[in-house]
TrEMBL record:
Belongs to the HAD-like hydrolase superfamily. Cof family. One of its GO terms (molecular function) is pyridoxal phosphatase activity. PROSITE patterns: COF_1 (PS01228), COF_2 (PS01229). It comes from Pararobbsia alpina. Pfam families: Hydrolase_3. This is Pyridoxal phosphate phosphatase YigL. It is an enzyme of class 3 (hydrolase).
Length: 271
């Protein structure tokens, strides 16, 4: 029997407006009442995700910054891994970042190199916001993740710069088509999920996981029962062709699949 549910947020658990809908909230609360552990695993900042967890109303473990941070349901940090400071200082330079919008995720702060109010629509449930600052003046200390946002061509140039200069000494992945993320090479959602599983004494075979993009690969490979969203990145579909695909995030696909797996009836209709 499954004992733990791990799910990504954007493109997976959240709807088209980057929010959680009532049906999803109802299903997750029913699962918690049955003793099922819930893990939110995302590239988002911890402060942001803790606000989303409050909206869900469940006691979930949080895997944030693509696995660079893990917090328990009582907000105790149980794992952390930072990008080396000397790497951060190089990553924010124009030679690496090109024309991308650059973001630094620290323990509490979201720092950005230019104003980007369009990003705030992703954080409606939590109210989390950024601080515009000169990133080239940052010490590079205590940074969990460096995020580059830009068009396809811009991020292709950034990715080429990263490969040329850093090789395997960093972990680089896409969370969305316009979001290229950099973490320590020992960081991933799958590794962080194993930290949670070990703490709880749960085997991977008793785990269900949901994801939609390239940063979900090893989490899906870790879980005994992985599911891929119908709206998943085509590259993820090519990489994991055996993983079953379910409904779309904008149709509450995760909640519908969980209701089927655990024979639940939601009290709210899907929007």
């Amino acid at each position: 029997m499954y004992r733990l549910i791990a799910t990504d947020l954007d493109g997976t658990l959240l709807n088209a407006h980057h929010q959680v809908d009532p049906f999803t909230i109802d299903i997750l609360r029913q699962l918690e009442q049955q003793g099922i552990e819930i893990v939110i695993a995302t590239g988002r900042h911890y402060t942001d995700v803790s606000g989303i967890r409050d909206t869900l109303g469940v006691r979930a473990h949080l895997i944030t910054s693509n696995g660079a941070r893990v917090h328990d349901p009582d907000d105790r940090e149980v794992f952390s891994e930072n990008v080396p400071p000397e790497f951060v200082r190089r990553l924010v330079t124009r030679e690496i970042a090109d024309d991308a919008t650059v973001n630094l995720f620290g323990d509490q702060d979201w720092l950005i190199n230019r104003d980007a109010p369009e990003l705030l629509r992703y954080h409606q449930d939590s109210g989390f916001s950024y601080q515009v600052t000169d990133l080239t003046a940052h010490t590079g200390d205590d940074i969990a993740k460096v995020l580059f946002i830009g068009g396809v061509d811009t991020l292709a140039r950034v990715e080429a710069n990263l490969i040329r200069e850093f090789g395997d000494s960093i972990y680089v992945t896409y969370s969305l088509a316009d979001c290229l993320e950099v973490m320590s090479p020992t960081v991933s959602k799958g590794r962080a999920l194993r930290v949670v599983l070990d703490r709880l004494g749960i085997e991977p075979t008793h785990t269900v996981a949901f994801g939609d993009n390239m940063n979900d690969i090893d989490m899906l490979e870790t879980a005994g029962q992985p599911f891929m969203m119908g709206n998943a990145n085509p590259l993820l579909m090519q990489r994991l062709p055996a993983v079953p695909r379910i409904g779309n995030n904008f149709d509450a696909g995760v909640a519908l699949e969980l209701a089927r797996l655990f024979d639940l009836q939601g009290s709210q209709s899907v929007a």
